[in-house]
Write a structure and sequence with these properties.
By secondary structure, the chain is of the alpha/beta class. It contains 11 helices and 6 strands.
Length: 250
């Protein structure tokens, strides 16, 4: 868990991950995938799901392919695990400020199950999940973000150039800044932020929620690219989704 003292250091500059963390991301992610086999007994012993729908949102420049391992695991646990089916996540300019396509997908899933949907979002997908929960709390049961840089300093990422090239939008732009400040506060639904201090894509302090009765922060070890298959993350996600439903989620 993150200490409150870490959250209080507002005046301290937030730096992007160092070169070593960034350069070793692919290797560390591969090792984390391989470690799933060693952690298989724990993964098999995780609490079973109640069958409610969970939509998993991919990170920047990735698609549903990169969330397959997480979704397969959630399906095995008994959840109705769903992809977002919106192709590659190339940023807000593709989907629009109102994210009409994502809202339509959320409404489809909520209507099909006649129940609220839990959202698990990786990186940029987590930022979008929080935005959906803030705008449509009647459709969202809870939110889990995985290494999502929704606070802190949006410039403290190691892929600023790549983001601008692929998305067509700079994190220094007025539109990004306005959206970032507007969406910094947590949504009204139970929200968990999972982050790693060894993240090689975004500063870990960008990924932690403000303390509130319905928010929590969970620290894990590992890379940014491995957050959707890191066994430690899978176990936390399984435990969170299996929690008894509270009045706020009903």
């Amino acid at each position: 868990m993150v200490a409150l003292s870490d959250l209080a250091r507002e005046s301290e500059a937030i730096a992007a991950p160092g070169l070593w963390l960034s350069a070793t991301e692919p290797l560390r992610a591969a090792l984390e995938f391989a470690s799933m086999f060693a952690r298989l007994p724990a993964l098999l012993a995780a609490p079973r799901g109640d069958g409610h729908t969970v939509m998993v949102l991919p990170g920047f420049a990735t698609s549903d392919v990169m969330t397959q391992a997480l979704r397969n695991y959630l399906s095995w646990l008994g959840y109705d695990s769903e992809p977002w089916r919106l192709g590659f996540n190339t940023g807000y300019l593709k989907f629009g400020e109102d994210q009409a396509g994502l809202h339509a997908r959320l409404s489809e899933l909520a209507g099909r199950s006649a129940d609220k949907v839990s959202l698990v979002g990786w990186s940029l997908g987590g930022m979008m999940a929080r935005q959906m929960a803030r705008r449509y709390p009647e459709a969202v049961r809870r939110v889990i973000t995985l290494g999502s840089p929704f606070t802190g300093d949006p410039r403290a990422i190691s892929i600023r150039g790549m983001y601008k090239l692929v998305s067509g939008e700079s994190v220094d732009s007025a539109s990004w800044r306005e959206r970032f400040e507007r969406d910094r506060a947590p949504p009204a639904v139970p929200t968990t932020a999972i982050y790693s201090r060894n993240d090689g894509v975004t500063a870990w302090r960008n990924c932690i929620e403000e303390p509130a009765a319905h928010t929590e922060n969970i620290e894990v070890g590992g890379s940014h690219l491995g957050l959707t298959h890191n066994p430690e993350v899978l176990l936390h996600v399984a435990a969170i989704l299996a929690r008894p439903r509270v009045a706020q989620e009903a």
